[in-house]
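Supplementary notes for students who missed Thursday's class. We covered one full example, reproduced here. Read the sequence, then the structure, then the short commentary at the end.
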Amino acid sequence: MSRGKKTVERVTQLMNQPEHIRNIGIVAHIDHGKTTMSDNLLAGAGIISEELAGKACWMDSDAEEQARGITIDASNVSMVHEYEGKEYLINMIDTPGHVDFGGDVTRAMRAVDGAVVLVDAVEGTMPQTETVLRQALKERVKPVLFINKVDRLINELQVDEMEMQIRLGKVIDKVNKLIKGMNEEMYNAGWKLDAAQGTVAFGSALYNWAVSAPFMKKSGVSFKDVYEHCKAGEMKALAKKSPLCDCILDMVVTFLPDPLVAQKRRVGVIWHGDINSPEGKGMYNCDPNAPSCMMVTDISFDPHAGEVATGRLFGGKLKRGDEVYVMQTAKKVNRLQQVGIFMGPTRVEVPELFAGNIAAVTGLKDAVVGSTVSSLMDMTPFESLEHYSEPVVTVAVEAKNMKDLPKLVEVLRQVAKEDPTLRVNINEETGEHLIAGMGELHLEIVTGRIKRDKNVEIVTSEPIVVYRETIVEKLESPVEGKSPNRHNRFYFILEPMPDHVVELIKSHEISMNQEQLERRDAMVKAGFEKDEAKNVKDIYGTNMLLDMTKGIQYLNETMELIIEGIHEALDGGPLADEPVQNLLMKLIDVKLHEDAIHRGPAQVIPAVRSAIKAGLLLGGDSLLEPIQKLYITVPQDYMGGATAQIQSRRGQVFDMTSEGDTITVVGKAPVAELFGFAGDVRSATEGRAMWNQEFAGFELIPAGMVKEVVLEIRKRKGLKEEMPKPSDYLA
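Structure (token representation):
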């Protein structure tokens, strides 16, 4: 593949010129044309042949992706584009559009500085368009817009030239409205999309043509020409005159920032260390001579090289044999065995990699997705990667043959490392292995890969819904936890966490990573007393511990054990052993034995754990169930079938919008009721429905159902089949 070899040489030469680098992500709703466009960009850059472009789905290298025709994993490629006589290195990540694989988009956004947002000209902005835009803006990744499938407007909807421009204008307005609503400051600072300026392109990824205002001057192709060529079916001629690759990559080079510009804006948002430290200055200035600082955004397994960690190098440089450390793990040296870049499915070794690039390295044994890797032994880690959705569906997995059990445990650990949106729970005692994922498709893909790629025959259970537990009412009097030896006592008041504070914790506006004064001010602003705000001891998920005691001897040295006991109680609540959320705990009094031997872990942890669990039951512990928001677009005649499908599943319809002869029904329903929804919606609408869903958080389960659901879960988990009582925990 001499063409590929030549590209690698050009890529290597440009790596240490950050002003000539663009790191971009291709993001969109499912089926809006990301992978087809990526293929055409690669063909234009000379990596694959033009005949294969759009058919090869070169970035979908996995057999499962090709069989289903969707992108499952984000994949990276580096290519070179020439613009105004200069060469530019484009590091591109093609991301999935399906809601179940949204975690890949979240991770990709950390690695890139700019995003090409694709929107289907006919469908317009969709739920996932909104989600990917929000993820990009949260990471300060600058968007440009490509409106795809313009040929469909002309040939399928038969719109005239004027109507076409009106429709395209509406799409731009809608995307701008989303950007303004999500981050008005950036919108006003030049992130507003403007077709006249050139931050919007129009075209057809399938037929390999695109136009934008600046590119029209260059190519001489006007909107009138576009309309006439589409009408006459002369797509090939249009692709020759105005090739997609040149139009899009010109837009990327002109309007998306290089790492020197982007890192000055992004580092303060994704890293909370001292900006004047050597590593802070190095990342701020994208300096190759500073300490190396890399954020791992993906881990994959290579059958020959083992674990490959991909990530963004913000500072310093990396080469084979370098010794680096992974933050927040044992301070063991990890020696880099290979340093390279990804060209789609193949990994190419390079002598060294410089700040501002996306690296693929082997030898990082201790790294997981989200790890901070540095040549320094101690460095403030990057802000953790938070995906907006949570795992809501679980399957139990067991090995078909007992001899495969050790291999299955190893494979599950690998799978958890590769995909951090999965939660893998390996219970050595019961032998039950649980995998929780974003949805049925997510789990289907993961379990399929365990069988296919890891060669482990497994049996999976029916999907089970993941619930959460929470307190409903504030306790009127403190709950007491006694240690087994009766010498230590802990008194807690428990209450529900206010909703607005839960949101502040989720958005990291209140967190344990903040300076104490910054956190105190944020909490006072949120309505806490000053005395409470300065005594936050722990935030665990959306739960918080406040220490409201005064002058208790030995409490400081016992606090770590108290927090450990609380974590154990919150990991599995008393009702159904499901995780607890939205709980505010106030420690108001403590009695401790003066002899350290009598207040060790075996005394403190059980006392605190039982106090929290009993307190939850006394405060009316209840279950929260995951909810999905549903969007169903159907012809008007089938609207009844669509709304009936939502309502028959304990769902609610709260909006309907019509456009032409189609109606979009917006509603929500519990995940527990949505198994088999796809087939039922197809039947009810004779296959005419297009539907999407997105995670809409957790809501309290109807009171009448709590007992039935709790007993069902307890039975499945092998717990006592009766409703628990506070006295079970209060000795």
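Commentary. Residues 49-74, 97-102 have pLDDT under 50 and may be disordered. The first helix runs from residue 2 to 14. If anything here is unclear, bring it to office hours.
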